[in-house]
Design a protein that fits this description.
It contains 18 helices and 12 strands. The radius of gyration is 25 Å and the shape is globular. Helix 4 crosses helix 6, helix 14 (296-328) crosses helix 15 (339-356) and helix 14 (296-328) crosses helix 16 (373-383). It has 3 domains: 6-219, no CATH class; 225-294, no CATH class; 329-489, 3-Layer(aba) Sandwich (ECO RI Endonuclease, Chain A). By secondary structure, it is α+β, with helices and mostly antiparallel strands. The model is unreliable at 93-97 and 487-491 (pLDDT under 50).
Protein backbone atom coordinates (compact mmCIF):
# COMPACT_ATOMS: atom_id res chain seq x y z
CA UNK A 1 0.00 0.00 0.00
CA UNK A 2 1.28 3.44 -0.95
CA UNK A 3 1.45 5.59 2.18
CA UNK A 4 1.33 9.38 2.29
CA UNK A 5 -1.23 10.51 4.85
CA UNK A 6 -2.00 9.91 8.51
CA UNK A 7 -4.81 7.51 7.66
CA UNK A 8 -2.43 5.49 5.44
CA UNK A 9 0.32 5.10 8.01
CA UNK A 10 -2.01 4.41 10.93
CA UNK A 11 -4.39 2.26 8.87
CA UNK A 12 -7.65 3.90 9.82
CA UNK A 13 -10.60 4.91 7.67
CA UNK A 14 -10.75 8.51 6.48
CA UNK A 15 -14.32 8.70 7.73
CA UNK A 16 -13.09 8.17 11.30
CA UNK A 17 -10.80 11.18 11.02
CA UNK A 18 -13.49 13.26 9.33
CA UNK A 19 -16.02 12.43 12.03
CA UNK A 20 -13.54 13.55 14.69
CA UNK A 21 -13.10 16.82 12.78
CA UNK A 22 -9.35 16.82 12.19
CA UNK A 23 -7.33 17.31 9.02
CA UNK A 24 -5.75 14.27 7.36
CA UNK A 25 -2.13 15.46 7.40
CA UNK A 26 0.64 14.15 5.17
CA UNK A 27 3.44 12.42 7.05
CA UNK A 28 5.77 13.00 4.10
CA UNK A 29 5.84 16.78 3.91
CA UNK A 30 4.37 19.84 5.62
CA UNK A 31 1.25 21.13 3.91
CA UNK A 32 0.76 24.91 3.50
CA UNK A 33 -1.87 25.42 6.19
CA UNK A 34 -1.63 27.08 9.58
CA UNK A 35 -3.79 27.94 12.59
CA UNK A 36 -5.42 31.36 12.43
CA UNK A 37 -6.05 32.65 15.98
CA UNK A 38 -9.01 34.70 14.73
CA UNK A 39 -10.87 31.43 14.16
CA UNK A 40 -10.66 30.82 17.91
CA UNK A 41 -12.18 34.22 18.60
CA UNK A 42 -14.83 33.93 15.89
CA UNK A 43 -16.02 30.47 16.85
CA UNK A 44 -19.18 29.66 18.79
CA UNK A 45 -17.27 26.78 20.36
CA UNK A 46 -16.73 27.78 23.99
CA UNK A 47 -13.52 25.76 24.22
CA UNK A 48 -12.08 27.73 21.29
CA UNK A 49 -13.16 31.01 22.85
CA UNK A 50 -11.40 30.03 26.08
CA UNK A 51 -8.24 29.32 24.10
CA UNK A 52 -8.41 32.83 22.67
CA UNK A 53 -8.85 34.23 26.18
CA UNK A 54 -5.89 32.17 27.37
CA UNK A 55 -3.73 33.67 24.61
CA UNK A 56 -4.71 37.17 25.72
CA UNK A 57 -3.93 36.25 29.33
CA UNK A 58 -0.41 35.28 28.31
CA UNK A 59 -0.02 38.47 26.27
CA UNK A 60 -1.11 40.46 29.32
CA UNK A 61 1.58 38.69 31.35
CA UNK A 62 4.21 39.53 28.73
CA UNK A 63 3.07 43.14 28.55
CA UNK A 64 3.19 43.50 32.33
CA UNK A 65 6.72 42.13 32.45
CA UNK A 66 7.75 44.40 29.60
CA UNK A 67 6.37 47.46 31.38
CA UNK A 68 8.16 46.52 34.59
CA UNK A 69 11.44 46.62 32.69
CA UNK A 70 14.61 44.77 33.64
CA UNK A 71 13.88 41.90 31.24
CA UNK A 72 17.04 39.86 30.90
CA UNK A 73 17.96 37.50 28.09
CA UNK A 74 16.95 34.53 30.21
CA UNK A 75 13.42 35.88 30.69
CA UNK A 76 13.05 36.68 27.00
CA UNK A 77 14.32 33.24 26.05
CA UNK A 78 11.97 31.48 28.49
CA UNK A 79 8.85 33.45 27.57
CA UNK A 80 9.23 34.22 23.86
CA UNK A 81 11.42 31.52 22.32
CA UNK A 82 9.58 28.43 21.07
CA UNK A 83 10.51 25.69 18.63
CA UNK A 84 8.25 25.11 15.67
CA UNK A 85 5.67 22.47 16.56
CA UNK A 86 6.77 20.30 13.66
CA UNK A 87 4.66 17.36 14.80
CA UNK A 88 1.48 18.91 13.37
CA UNK A 89 2.93 18.71 9.82
CA UNK A 90 1.76 22.17 8.80
CA UNK A 91 3.63 25.27 7.83
CA UNK A 92 6.26 26.59 5.49
CA UNK A 93 8.83 23.81 5.45
CA UNK A 94 9.37 22.68 1.87
CA UNK A 95 11.00 19.45 2.91
CA UNK A 96 9.70 17.12 5.58
CA UNK A 97 8.30 18.89 8.62
CA UNK A 98 11.19 20.95 9.95
CA UNK A 99 10.82 24.70 10.32
CA UNK A 100 12.67 27.47 12.08
CA UNK A 101 10.30 28.22 14.97
CA UNK A 102 10.41 31.41 17.03
CA UNK A 103 13.97 32.62 17.36
CA UNK A 104 15.84 35.52 18.99
CA UNK A 105 14.78 38.04 16.32
CA UNK A 106 11.09 37.40 17.00
CA UNK A 107 11.67 37.44 20.75
CA UNK A 108 13.48 40.77 20.58
CA UNK A 109 10.87 42.36 18.31
CA UNK A 110 7.92 41.24 20.40
CA UNK A 111 9.40 41.91 23.83
CA UNK A 112 10.40 45.46 22.90
CA UNK A 113 7.06 46.28 21.24
CA UNK A 114 4.45 44.88 23.63
CA UNK A 115 3.34 48.30 24.88
CA UNK A 116 3.11 49.70 21.34
CA UNK A 117 1.13 46.79 19.93
CA UNK A 118 -1.14 45.97 22.85
CA UNK A 119 -1.47 49.40 24.43
CA UNK A 120 -5.21 48.94 25.08
CA UNK A 121 -5.04 45.24 26.00
CA UNK A 122 -7.88 44.54 28.42
CA UNK A 123 -9.36 48.03 28.05
CA UNK A 124 -10.37 48.06 24.38
CA UNK A 125 -12.73 50.82 23.25
CA UNK A 126 -12.94 50.44 19.47
CA UNK A 127 -12.52 46.67 19.14
CA UNK A 128 -14.30 43.89 21.00
CA UNK A 129 -11.01 42.47 22.25
CA UNK A 130 -7.31 42.25 21.40
CA UNK A 131 -5.76 39.87 18.90
CA UNK A 132 -2.34 38.22 18.81
CA UNK A 133 -2.01 38.77 15.06
CA UNK A 134 -2.21 42.53 15.57
CA UNK A 135 1.58 42.33 15.85
CA UNK A 136 1.85 41.72 12.09
CA UNK A 137 0.25 45.11 11.37
CA UNK A 138 3.17 47.05 12.85
CA UNK A 139 6.54 47.38 11.15
CA UNK A 140 8.45 45.38 13.75
CA UNK A 141 9.47 42.35 11.70
CA UNK A 142 6.80 39.94 12.95
CA UNK A 143 5.17 37.95 10.15
CA UNK A 144 2.33 35.49 9.70
CA UNK A 145 4.66 32.51 10.14
CA UNK A 146 5.71 33.88 13.55
CA UNK A 147 2.07 34.27 14.57
CA UNK A 148 1.30 30.76 13.35
CA UNK A 149 4.15 29.26 15.40
CA UNK A 150 3.27 31.37 18.45
CA UNK A 151 -0.41 30.43 18.28
CA UNK A 152 0.35 26.72 17.93
CA UNK A 153 2.66 26.82 20.93
CA UNK A 154 0.18 28.78 23.04
CA UNK A 155 -2.62 26.26 22.39
CA UNK A 156 -0.36 23.21 22.36
CA UNK A 157 -1.95 21.76 25.49
CA UNK A 158 -5.34 21.74 23.77
CA UNK A 159 -3.90 20.14 20.61
CA UNK A 160 -2.15 17.45 22.64
CA UNK A 161 -5.31 16.65 24.62
CA UNK A 162 -7.27 16.59 21.37
CA UNK A 163 -4.79 14.19 19.77
CA UNK A 164 -4.46 11.96 22.81
CA UNK A 165 -8.24 11.51 23.01
CA UNK A 166 -8.34 10.44 19.36
CA UNK A 167 -5.37 8.10 19.79
CA UNK A 168 -6.80 6.34 22.84
CA UNK A 169 -10.16 5.88 21.14
CA UNK A 170 -9.02 4.84 17.66
CA UNK A 171 -5.43 3.54 17.55
CA UNK A 172 -3.80 0.29 18.62
CA UNK A 173 -1.25 0.05 21.42
CA UNK A 174 1.61 -0.47 18.97
CA UNK A 175 0.69 2.77 17.19
CA UNK A 176 1.00 5.03 20.23
CA UNK A 177 3.62 5.89 22.79
CA UNK A 178 3.75 7.80 26.07
CA UNK A 179 6.00 10.81 25.55
CA UNK A 180 7.10 13.80 27.59
CA UNK A 181 6.43 17.06 25.77
CA UNK A 182 8.19 20.27 26.77
CA UNK A 183 6.55 23.70 27.11
CA UNK A 184 2.97 22.46 27.23
CA UNK A 185 1.34 24.89 29.66
CA UNK A 186 2.36 28.04 31.51
CA UNK A 187 2.47 28.06 35.31
CA UNK A 188 1.76 31.67 36.30
CA UNK A 189 2.86 31.06 39.90
CA UNK A 190 6.27 29.79 38.81
CA UNK A 191 6.31 32.01 35.71
CA UNK A 192 7.61 29.20 33.56
CA UNK A 193 6.48 26.78 30.87
CA UNK A 194 5.93 23.25 32.13
CA UNK A 195 6.21 19.80 30.50
CA UNK A 196 3.54 17.12 30.50
CA UNK A 197 3.21 13.48 29.46
CA UNK A 198 0.83 12.28 26.76
CA UNK A 199 -0.02 9.07 24.93
CA UNK A 200 0.18 10.05 21.27
CA UNK A 201 0.39 8.57 17.77
CA UNK A 202 4.04 7.69 17.24
CA UNK A 203 5.93 7.14 14.00
CA UNK A 204 9.36 7.95 12.52
CA UNK A 205 10.78 8.28 16.06
CA UNK A 206 8.44 11.14 16.89
CA UNK A 207 4.89 11.81 18.00
CA UNK A 208 2.15 13.26 15.82
CA UNK A 209 -0.25 16.11 16.62
CA UNK A 210 -3.68 16.32 15.00
CA UNK A 211 -5.43 19.63 14.37
CA UNK A 212 -9.14 20.48 14.00
CA UNK A 213 -9.77 21.50 10.41
CA UNK A 214 -11.96 24.45 11.45
CA UNK A 215 -8.90 26.23 12.92
CA UNK A 216 -6.90 26.15 9.70
CA UNK A 217 -6.37 28.52 6.81
CA UNK A 218 -3.69 29.33 4.24
CA UNK A 219 -1.84 32.31 2.77
CA UNK A 220 -2.89 34.95 5.32
CA UNK A 221 -4.49 35.40 8.72
CA UNK A 222 -7.96 36.94 8.64
CA UNK A 223 -6.35 40.01 10.22
CA UNK A 224 -3.44 40.87 7.92
CA UNK A 225 -1.47 43.78 6.54
CA UNK A 226 -2.56 43.34 2.94
CA UNK A 227 -6.23 43.75 3.86
CA UNK A 228 -5.41 46.66 6.17
CA UNK A 229 -3.96 48.55 3.22
CA UNK A 230 -6.49 47.24 0.72
CA UNK A 231 -9.46 48.20 2.91
CA UNK A 232 -7.94 51.54 3.91
CA UNK A 233 -10.67 53.75 2.45
CA UNK A 234 -13.48 51.61 3.89
CA UNK A 235 -11.78 51.54 7.28
CA UNK A 236 -11.32 55.30 7.37
CA UNK A 237 -14.90 55.97 6.34
CA UNK A 238 -16.04 53.87 9.31
CA UNK A 239 -14.18 55.94 11.93
CA UNK A 240 -16.89 57.52 14.07
CA UNK A 241 -14.68 60.30 15.45
CA UNK A 242 -15.22 63.02 12.84
CA UNK A 243 -12.16 65.06 13.84
CA UNK A 244 -9.86 62.03 13.69
CA UNK A 245 -11.33 60.97 10.37
CA UNK A 246 -10.78 64.45 8.93
CA UNK A 247 -7.18 64.57 10.19
CA UNK A 248 -6.43 61.17 8.67
CA UNK A 249 -7.94 62.10 5.31
CA UNK A 250 -6.05 65.39 5.27
CA UNK A 251 -2.73 63.71 6.12
CA UNK A 252 -3.29 61.07 3.44
CA UNK A 253 -4.03 63.67 0.75
CA UNK A 254 -0.88 65.61 1.65
CA UNK A 255 1.21 62.45 1.26
CA UNK A 256 0.01 61.98 -2.32
CA UNK A 257 2.15 63.64 -5.01
CA UNK A 258 0.51 66.47 -6.90
CA UNK A 259 -0.77 65.11 -10.24
CA UNK A 260 0.26 66.76 -13.49
CA UNK A 261 -0.88 66.43 -17.08
CA UNK A 262 2.03 64.12 -17.79
CA UNK A 263 2.02 62.14 -14.57
CA UNK A 264 -1.04 60.78 -12.84
CA UNK A 265 -1.14 59.45 -9.30
CA UNK A 266 -0.21 55.77 -9.42
CA UNK A 267 -1.24 52.84 -7.24
CA UNK A 268 2.30 52.81 -5.90
CA UNK A 269 1.90 56.45 -4.84
CA UNK A 270 -1.34 55.59 -3.07
CA UNK A 271 0.22 52.59 -1.34
CA UNK A 272 3.10 54.71 0.00
CA UNK A 273 0.66 57.36 1.23
CA UNK A 274 -1.49 54.74 2.94
CA UNK A 275 1.52 53.21 4.69
CA UNK A 276 2.70 56.64 5.88
CA UNK A 277 -0.80 57.48 7.15
CA UNK A 278 -1.13 54.24 9.12
CA UNK A 279 2.28 54.85 10.67
CA UNK A 280 1.24 58.38 11.68
CA UNK A 281 -2.19 57.29 12.92
CA UNK A 282 -1.90 53.74 14.33
CA UNK A 283 -5.47 54.13 15.64
CA UNK A 284 -6.50 53.11 12.12
CA UNK A 285 -5.40 49.58 12.98
CA UNK A 286 -8.06 49.25 15.69
CA UNK A 287 -10.77 50.43 13.31
CA UNK A 288 -9.57 47.91 10.75
CA UNK A 289 -9.71 45.12 13.35
CA UNK A 290 -13.22 46.24 14.31
CA UNK A 291 -14.25 45.78 10.68
CA UNK A 292 -12.78 42.27 10.69
CA UNK A 293 -14.44 41.37 14.00
CA UNK A 294 -17.82 42.24 12.52
CA UNK A 295 -17.36 39.64 9.79
CA UNK A 296 -16.67 36.43 11.70
CA UNK A 297 -18.60 34.38 9.18
CA UNK A 298 -16.35 35.67 6.42
CA UNK A 299 -13.32 34.31 8.27
CA UNK A 300 -14.97 30.90 8.68
CA UNK A 301 -15.99 30.76 5.02
CA UNK A 302 -12.48 31.64 3.82
CA UNK A 303 -11.02 29.04 6.16
CA UNK A 304 -13.37 26.35 4.85
CA UNK A 305 -12.60 27.25 1.24
CA UNK A 306 -8.84 27.27 1.87
CA UNK A 307 -8.84 23.89 3.61
CA UNK A 308 -10.93 22.34 0.84
CA UNK A 309 -8.52 23.73 -1.77
CA UNK A 310 -5.49 22.23 -0.02
CA UNK A 311 -7.33 18.92 0.29
CA UNK A 312 -8.16 19.03 -3.40
CA UNK A 313 -4.59 19.71 -4.53
CA UNK A 314 -2.47 17.85 -2.01
CA UNK A 315 -4.72 14.95 -1.04
CA UNK A 316 -7.44 14.10 -3.55
CA UNK A 317 -5.45 14.86 -6.69
CA UNK A 318 -2.21 13.48 -5.31
CA UNK A 319 -4.04 10.20 -4.64
CA UNK A 320 -5.25 10.24 -8.26
CA UNK A 321 -1.72 10.95 -9.51
CA UNK A 322 -0.19 8.18 -7.40
CA UNK A 323 -2.84 5.69 -8.55
CA UNK A 324 -2.08 6.70 -12.13
CA UNK A 325 1.64 6.24 -11.59
CA UNK A 326 1.05 2.82 -10.03
CA UNK A 327 -1.34 1.62 -12.72
CA UNK A 328 0.19 3.18 -15.83
CA UNK A 329 3.94 3.27 -15.13
CA UNK A 330 6.78 1.57 -13.30
CA UNK A 331 7.39 4.69 -11.23
CA UNK A 332 7.45 2.77 -7.94
CA UNK A 333 9.19 -0.29 -9.38
CA UNK A 334 12.42 1.43 -10.37
CA UNK A 335 15.37 -0.44 -8.83
CA UNK A 336 17.67 1.77 -6.76
CA UNK A 337 20.73 1.34 -8.97
CA UNK A 338 21.85 4.84 -9.85
CA UNK A 339 20.45 8.02 -8.42
CA UNK A 340 20.63 9.90 -11.73
CA UNK A 341 18.90 7.18 -13.75
CA UNK A 342 16.24 6.61 -11.10
CA UNK A 343 15.55 10.32 -10.86
CA UNK A 344 15.37 10.79 -14.63
CA UNK A 345 13.15 7.73 -15.09
CA UNK A 346 10.78 8.94 -12.43
CA UNK A 347 10.63 12.44 -13.89
CA UNK A 348 9.82 10.95 -17.29
CA UNK A 349 7.10 8.76 -15.81
CA UNK A 350 5.68 11.87 -14.16
CA UNK A 351 5.80 13.60 -17.55
CA UNK A 352 3.95 10.69 -19.16
CA UNK A 353 1.15 10.72 -16.62
CA UNK A 354 0.75 14.51 -16.68
CA UNK A 355 0.72 14.73 -20.47
CA UNK A 356 -1.08 11.52 -21.47
CA UNK A 357 -3.04 10.21 -18.49
CA UNK A 358 -4.96 13.26 -17.26
CA UNK A 359 -2.32 14.05 -14.63
CA UNK A 360 -2.43 17.67 -15.80
CA UNK A 361 -5.67 18.12 -13.84
CA UNK A 362 -3.60 18.18 -10.66
CA UNK A 363 -2.40 21.66 -11.55
CA UNK A 364 -5.79 23.32 -12.03
CA UNK A 365 -8.22 24.77 -9.50
CA UNK A 366 -11.57 25.89 -10.91
CA UNK A 367 -10.07 25.78 -14.38
CA UNK A 368 -7.13 28.05 -13.50
CA UNK A 369 -3.51 26.78 -13.40
CA UNK A 370 -1.98 26.90 -9.92
CA UNK A 371 1.34 27.99 -11.46
CA UNK A 372 3.21 28.07 -8.15
CA UNK A 373 6.60 26.45 -7.96
CA UNK A 374 6.15 25.78 -4.25
CA UNK A 375 3.08 23.68 -5.05
CA UNK A 376 4.95 21.83 -7.77
CA UNK A 377 7.79 21.04 -5.38
CA UNK A 378 5.47 19.72 -2.67
CA UNK A 379 3.68 17.58 -5.25
CA UNK A 380 6.98 16.09 -6.37
CA UNK A 381 7.97 15.33 -2.78
CA UNK A 382 4.64 13.62 -2.10
CA UNK A 383 5.15 11.31 -5.08
CA UNK A 384 8.74 10.33 -4.22
CA UNK A 385 8.08 8.82 -0.79
CA UNK A 386 8.35 5.18 -1.91
CA UNK A 387 12.00 5.51 -2.95
CA UNK A 388 14.75 4.38 -0.61
CA UNK A 389 16.80 7.36 -1.73
CA UNK A 390 17.41 10.27 0.59
CA UNK A 391 15.26 13.06 -0.83
CA UNK A 392 16.36 16.39 0.60
CA UNK A 393 14.22 19.37 -0.32
CA UNK A 394 16.12 22.57 -1.15
CA UNK A 395 19.51 21.61 0.22
CA UNK A 396 21.79 24.47 1.08
CA UNK A 397 25.45 23.52 0.97
CA UNK A 398 26.72 27.03 0.58
CA UNK A 399 25.29 28.45 -2.65
CA UNK A 400 21.55 28.71 -2.12
CA UNK A 401 18.70 26.21 -2.38
CA UNK A 402 18.11 23.71 -5.17
CA UNK A 403 14.76 22.01 -5.35
CA UNK A 404 15.86 18.47 -4.55
CA UNK A 405 19.08 16.62 -3.98
CA UNK A 406 18.36 12.92 -4.33
CA UNK A 407 21.19 10.83 -3.01
CA UNK A 408 22.04 7.24 -2.15
CA UNK A 409 25.33 7.62 -0.41
CA UNK A 410 27.70 10.56 -0.71
CA UNK A 411 29.07 9.44 -4.08
CA UNK A 412 25.69 9.14 -5.79
CA UNK A 413 23.85 12.44 -5.77
CA UNK A 414 21.55 14.05 -8.31
CA UNK A 415 20.12 17.55 -8.24
CA UNK A 416 16.54 17.85 -9.46
CA UNK A 417 15.29 21.37 -10.00
CA UNK A 418 11.66 22.18 -10.79
CA UNK A 419 10.78 25.41 -12.55
CA UNK A 420 7.75 26.96 -14.19
CA UNK A 421 8.08 28.38 -17.69
CA UNK A 422 6.39 31.52 -16.38
CA UNK A 423 9.36 32.16 -14.08
CA UNK A 424 10.79 35.51 -15.17
CA UNK A 425 14.32 34.37 -14.30
CA UNK A 426 14.14 31.07 -16.16
CA UNK A 427 16.93 31.85 -18.63
CA UNK A 428 19.22 33.09 -15.90
CA UNK A 429 18.54 29.95 -13.89
CA UNK A 430 19.26 27.69 -16.83
CA UNK A 431 22.51 29.50 -17.56
CA UNK A 432 23.96 29.56 -14.10
CA UNK A 433 21.99 28.09 -11.26
CA UNK A 434 22.33 24.34 -11.34
CA UNK A 435 25.93 24.52 -12.63
CA UNK A 436 26.86 26.54 -9.56
CA UNK A 437 24.99 24.14 -7.30
CA UNK A 438 26.75 21.14 -8.85
CA UNK A 439 30.11 22.50 -7.75
CA UNK A 440 28.84 23.16 -4.24
CA UNK A 441 27.28 19.70 -3.91
CA UNK A 442 30.20 17.86 -5.51
CA UNK A 443 28.07 16.16 -8.16
CA UNK A 444 27.98 16.13 -11.94
CA UNK A 445 24.39 14.91 -12.28
CA UNK A 446 21.52 17.37 -12.51
CA UNK A 447 18.00 17.32 -13.93
CA UNK A 448 15.98 20.39 -14.79
CA UNK A 449 12.20 19.95 -15.04
CA UNK A 450 10.21 22.79 -16.62
CA UNK A 451 6.41 22.87 -16.51
CA UNK A 452 4.52 24.90 -19.13
CA UNK A 453 0.80 25.52 -19.65
CA UNK A 454 0.35 26.91 -23.16
CA UNK A 455 1.99 27.45 -26.55
CA UNK A 456 3.34 30.85 -25.58
CA UNK A 457 5.23 29.40 -22.63
CA UNK A 458 6.45 26.50 -24.78
CA UNK A 459 7.79 28.93 -27.39
CA UNK A 460 9.59 30.83 -24.65
CA UNK A 461 11.27 27.67 -23.34
CA UNK A 462 12.36 26.41 -26.76
CA UNK A 463 13.79 29.81 -27.66
CA UNK A 464 15.82 29.90 -24.45
CA UNK A 465 17.05 26.33 -24.89
CA UNK A 466 18.04 27.01 -28.50
CA UNK A 467 19.86 30.19 -27.53
CA UNK A 468 21.78 28.30 -24.84
CA UNK A 469 22.31 25.23 -27.07
CA UNK A 470 20.56 23.05 -24.51
CA UNK A 471 17.69 21.81 -26.68
CA UNK A 472 18.98 18.23 -27.00
CA UNK A 473 19.86 17.56 -23.36
CA UNK A 474 18.15 14.53 -21.84
CA UNK A 475 18.42 16.03 -18.38
CA UNK A 476 16.24 19.01 -19.32
CA UNK A 477 12.69 17.69 -19.24
CA UNK A 478 9.75 19.77 -20.46
CA UNK A 479 6.31 18.83 -19.15
CA UNK A 480 3.16 20.04 -20.89
CA UNK A 481 0.60 20.72 -18.16
CA UNK A 482 -1.82 22.42 -20.54
CA UNK A 483 -5.42 21.31 -20.51
CA UNK A 484 -6.07 18.33 -22.77
CA UNK A 485 -9.07 17.27 -24.82
CA UNK A 486 -10.49 14.04 -23.47
CA UNK A 487 -9.94 11.09 -25.80
CA UNK A 488 -13.68 10.41 -25.71
CA UNK A 489 -14.28 13.87 -27.19
CA UNK A 490 -11.82 13.50 -30.05
CA UNK A 491 -13.62 12.76 -33.33
Amino acid sequence: MIKIYFTDFFQIEKEVLEKYGCFNISLINDLPLFIDPFLLFGSKNQEYQKLHSDILKYLAFLKEKSEEGNLNTGDISAWYLFPEVKQNWFGYSKFGNGGSGLGPKFASSMSSSMKLIYEDLGSEVVTQTSHLEKATLFEIGVGKDNISDFTTNLIKEFLLNYTEKFALENLNENQVKKVKVNKVYFDYALERWMPKEYTLPFIFDDYVILTPRDLLTKDDNWINGNDLRGDFYQVCSGISNQQLRAEINNFYRKKLPAPTEKKKITNKDRAKAIQATIKQYPEIINWYIKLKEENKEGAKNISKKNVEEIESIFINRIIELVENLVNETKFYDIPPDFSYKASLDRVNFLKQVIENNDGYRLFYINGVPIKREDDLQIIYRLTWFASNYDVNRETNNGRGPVDYAISKGAKDKTLVEFKLASNSKLQQNLENQVEVYEKANNTTSSIKVILYFDSTEYAKITRILNDLKLNDKENIVLIDAGRKISASNVK
